[in-house]
Amino acid sequence: MELRAYAAGDAEATLAIFLRAVRETARAHYSPEQVAAWAADYGDLDSWAAARAAAHTQLAIIDGHVAGFTDLVDHGYIDMLFVDPDFGRQGIASALLASMVALARQRGLPAVTTFASLTSRPVFERHGFVITGERYFGEGDGAAKTYQMRCVLDGTTPL
Question: What is the mean pLDDT of residues 92-103?
Answer without folding.
Answer: 95
